[in-house]
Amino acid sequence: MTGEAVNYYFGVLSVSVTATGRKIDKVTIGQLSDGGNYRSQQIDGMSIPILEQETMQAQNAQIQSVSGASYTSAGFIMSLQSALKKLGI
After folding, report:
1. 15, 3 contact by CB (below 8 A)
2. 32 secondary structure, DSSP code
3. CA quadruple 30, 58, 76, 38: dihedral sign
4. S-S: 47 plus which of 6, 26, 69, 77, CB 3.0-4.6 Å?
5. Domain range list for the chain
């Protein structure tokens, strides 16, 4: 299930979640458009894997933002919450 596409200052991102019942099996980026901004690509490349890992460990959207990636983290969490709501988690 893909969450809402969120404008996160540098662009747009959405999170896709695969779940079995209430267990999150997989978290990936459904859409990422950062306008080709090199710095944004660096930040996204560093922070998104951490956010995905944190989600898998927490099994919910109650995860910490990644230091230095406030906008990406906020967009990721907003889209994640949307996807989890659609899944009833």
Report:
1. yes
2. E
3. negative
4. 69
5. 6-87
